[in-house]
Design brief:
- The protein is mostly helical.
- It has two domains: 1-29, no CATH class; 31-85, no CATH class.
- The chain is 48% helix and 0% strand.
- The chain has helices spanning 13-22, 36-45, 56-76.
- The longest helix has 21 residues, at 56-76.
- This is Integrin-linked protein kinase.
Length: 85
């Protein structure tokens, strides 16, 4: 999903779902595709303990801040503009 296709083409979807639910499997987040703030937020959303995950309002607030930061970098020409939030 994060790379434009299945996270593991060699494994059946059911096996990947089982690994995610029971073995804490998470897809690799390539640093050249995702800004560090996005990777951090995704990892927090994936926390095994639901009480440790951010609320939807916190997710929205953080994404808005990340978006504003990326927009500033695009205007300044210091960031690739191909990432869309």
């Amino acid at each position: 999903m994060f790379l434009g296709g299945p996270s593991n083409r060699e494994e059946a979807a059911e096996k990947v779902a089982d690994k995610t639910a029971y073995e804490d499997y998470r897809p690799h987040l390539a640093s050249y595709i995702f800004p560090e703030q996005i990777k951090t937020l995704l990892r927090e959303c994936w926390h095994k303990n639901p009480d440790r995950r951010p609320s939807f309002q916190e997710i929205i607030d953080r994404l808005e801040k990340i978006h504003a930061t990326l927009q500033e970098k695009i205007v300044l020409g210091t960031c690739c503009s191909c990432m869309i939030l």
